[in-house]
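step 4 of 6: structure.
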Amino acid sequence: MNNDFLVAKGVTKRFGALTALSGIDLTIRSGEVLALLGDNGAGKSTFIKVVSGAHPPSDGTILIEGQPVSFNSPKDAADAGIATIFQELALSENLSISENVFLGRELTNTVLGVPFLRRNEMKQRVAGLLDELDADISDAEAPVGSLSGGQRQAVAICRALNLNARLVIMDEPTAALAVAETRKVLGLTRRLAERGCAVVLISHNISDVFEVADRMVVFRRGRKVAERLRNETTPEEIVALITGAHPDVRALEKAS
Amino acid sequence: MNASVRTIGLNGRELLLLAACALAIVVFSIAAPAFGTPANAATILRNSVELLLIGLGMTFILAMGGIDVSIGIVMGLAAIAVGKLLEGGAPVPIAALAGPLAGMALGLITAAVVVLGRIPAIVGTLGLLGVYRTAIFVALGGQWLSGLPTGLTELLYARPLGIPVSAWIIAIAYLAAWLALRRTPYGPHLLAIGNAEEKARLSGIAVTRVRFATFVASGFLAGVAATFYVATYRNVEMSIGSTLALDAIAAVVLGGTSILGGRCSLIGTVLGVLLLRILQNGLLLIGVPSLWQTVVTGALLIGVLGMEAAAGRLKFSSIGQAAR
Ligand SMILES: Nc1ncnc2c1ncn2[C@@H]1O[C@H](COP(=O)(O)OP(=O)(O)OP(=O)(O)O)[C@@H](O)[C@H]1O
Ligand SMILES: [Mg+2]
């Protein structure tokens, strides 16, 4: 069975004279947690911004289930089943949890051409999702600004699930979290994959990555320098790949 | 305390405003015998109608992190359209509709400049203000429109179900604004944009469309205010609307809407407008020259913003966003 959800071929992104990504080939599979690793500025965030429609690629193609796509906006990507949880969480702190979960995709009844919110239904759906994720949030009407970092991640994941996302991308979801909350979010990540979602996780924390990822891809200076299955590699090797101390990376960088 | 406040639907800020209104009424009634009369109460309410309409629009604009300093003059231009039509003998319904239509057209221009032109709202509307000032002067040819035909004014005497037309207009505008804000997706979209435009865009909100529609709606409300203005006063003077934008911004901010966007209160705007008009009327009656009115308004605006900044509710480092 072919589980390939998204295939990137030769994806390149230039910002003026700066090449942030060059010729990235990458496959993202359903039911799998794929970790993107790399030093600061390696191009991880830029890559997911291209995949999620926030930046158009300068070059290269993206296939979803074998079909080439071109996203003009995050909405296009969302319509294709891609939900991105950005490093700087795209939640609105001034809105409630349920408003955030449905933001831009509200359920409405149209009366005389006016779309009225189906507020109770949305509240119930969100309460159900929070429950399912075991998110430790009791009130779906609480403003997101009052939540902890881990709870906000849970809200962002709820939002992704609610949009029936088939690929959930998380950019450093645990960067700002305490230990207990980190465990919780990593658990959520696994649960997403078990539900058949494709999951892409960006993280600087090698032990987190080894805890949840099935596959790892290392970026360096805008290029993909390695791809490893978790049970075929070690944290030491991954660190060497990230820092460029690994012989493979040396060879690659000498060649170019 | 929260529960008891919830039951009457007002937050602390709004209760404070209500108390301030009550206090002002008591103080002025003692200081000026003419203040506490039914006739004066009617005057205050009548003087509040345009500001209420424009204030509702300004609430939405500030809530999304925008601002419009030209809105008073927009009302002025729309009033000239209404006045000129009446003067030229146009049928009353046409003259009445000309206000909202002209307001919407001007709102379209504002939206085009600020939203499509990607010019910070404070700068874009300041530029428009400059243009419109001269447009008013040119349109009036240096002369007031005065002694306009009474046809439009007579509409105001109607009392459907025993309630004055002006009260109907305010009630309908308020209800529509409340429904849009609290019962349709427009509300959370507007507040998300005001909180952080880029995040709103990433969430898939049609940011340009929401911002555009908001400026047009605000122009529409200013146009309704213009029709009401001409109907009430039957004249259009050269300085029409010149202090309205300041009044509206002050009243709305007083009411608890954030000048930086992301937070708003419609009931707060109503209370802010009433407080402002009570103060202006009362000060006049105790003998303070009308020249001082804008001083009071400006000082109130600065005072409230200063207090919010001190309380840590505003971070003016993000003023770049507010200026949009
Ligand atoms: N909008 C932009 N305009 C110009 N340059 C950009 C832009 N976004 C990213 N870059 C540059 O592209 C390169 C890759 O950045 P990116 O944010 O993708 O790195 P990253 O791997 O996510 O790093 P980090 O681990 O620090 O988050 C950097 O040199 C960055 O400065
Ligand atoms: Mg990054």
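step 5 of 6: annotate
 - Chain B touches chain A through 20 residues (CB under 8 Å).
 - Chain B is about 75% helix and 0% strand.
step 6 of 6: archive
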